[in-house]
Amino acid sequence: MGNEKPVQGTKERNTPILSVKNLFISFGDLAVLNGISMDVKKGEVVVILGPSGSGKTTFLRCINFLENASEGTIEIDGYPVEHQGKKKANKKRILALRKKTAMVFQNYNLFRNKTLLANVMEGLTVVQKVSKAEAEKRSTEMLERVGLGEKLHNYPSTISGGQQQRASIARALVLNPNVILFDEPTSALDPELVGEVLETMKKIAVEGITMIVVTHEINFARSVATRVIFMDSGNIVEEGTPQEVIDNPKNERTKQFLNIIKEKAVLAEK
Amino acid sequence: MRGLDWDFMLENLLTIAKGISYTMEIAVVSIIFGGVLGLVTALARMYRTPVLSQISSVYIAIIRGTPLMVQILVVYYGIPRFLQWVNAEYGTNMDINSIPAIYFMYFCFSLYIGSYLSELLRGCIASVDSGQLEACYSIGMTTAQGMTRVVLPQALVSALPNFGNNFIGLIKDASLAFTVSIPEILGQAKILAGRTSKFLEAYLDAAIIYFIICFISQQILRILEKKSRRHER
Prior knowledge:
The complex is a heterodimer. By secondary structure, chain A is α/β, with parallel strands linked by helices. Chain A has helices at residues 56-63, 91-98, 116-127, 132-145, 161-173, 191-206, 218-224, 242-247, 252-269; strands at residues 16-27, 30-41, 45-49, 71-76, 79-82, 101-104, 179-183, 211-214, 227-232, 235-240. The longest helix of chain A has 18 residues, at 252-269. Chain B has two domains: 1-19 and 183-233; 20-182, MetI-like (MetI-like fold), CATH 1.10.3720. Chain B is mainly alpha-helical. The longest helix of chain B is centred in the last third of the chain and has 31 residues, at 143-173. The A-B interface holds A 64-66, 95, 98-99, 101-103, 105, 107, 109-115, 122-123, 126-128, 155-158, 168, 171-172, 175, 181 and B 129, 131-132, 134-142, 145, 149-150, 153-154, 157, 230-233.
């Protein structure tokens, strides 16, 4: 059942680590995703752009089954799981799939009743059954890496939004997932805190972590993304390298949207 | 006040204080069992567990729709009758008269407070941000793990002030147990009053004792609350 791990080395380098096939979902009469398919290779940084309501967040949440699509298959590292709408028949497979991913949320969603260290350790000890000492060591290192070595024993409510988001990146990263999903990671932040989070994300992108990022940060997309996808009303309208999509968009809708975003970016820089 | 027998009140304060242990036993035992009952029924209703959620709804409706006084009397006279019937029907040989009346009160007060705590806990669990459970899912935790490790600890913290109020209420409600001859605080006062005909003095003593234990309980709860909120700055 695709349960067995592919033997290292025999796998072709071009085999996608994540493969989304034919994802359909509608809320009531409104079709949110119209049969989306996408392959992501190991180490790729895919940035998804698009106006609000285009379905990008829903798409991301379907990948780890936080949202149940009516149709479609998600395959990560050779492990396929089918979407079956509200029926949750394949609970065990969903759980197994989720262990291959991690997510960074718009509102951080750090566990409020736990310190930063405990937040990062949680997945290691509870899900991956790593020993406490080992988990503590790895979590401390990870928090140091995102620049929070001095806040190990702070509770989330005592630190800034940017620090919380960096901690939540550490919580995702420490699990060593096949892919990390970023759901508008900077949208809830004060403007002056956006930079530190993007900096952290750039750092891990360079290390070859596979990332899918929903964001409006056009400059981040240009400098970090290996591929940019533009979505509109539940479809992938355009896709390609940052240069292709951001600097030379072919689609009318993409052009329109990018003009607005670019203007904003220019204004922000001034 | 004129004519009030202060000496009598002072001498008998300790006599009436003998009832404290019964009062506190009823309150503590009931808040524990009632808390568990409330949690189970709250979860059953939130997750719409078949059968269990319907039973929970009916149970809560009945308890909230009848006076505690009536519940006490029904339990006190009903349980022995029920056990008699079990004995006759199944040939068991339970000695009904040897069951201390206080056990009936544990049962009754647990059911009573459980229904209120169920509503309280349901509200508190629902008020925990849904993103917390999503974050649990995102790192591969099960619903049960997320609930016990993240959602419930947060819900219980926000439930604690109301939990405390319910506990204080329970201490006072336990005075109703005197009707089935439990010698708790009010029960002791009644006995003393009947024996000496100093009614006002005896009941004033009871009032003083109730006030003291409620006051102390409130202080303890306040400290607990403070400690449990350490992560909220």
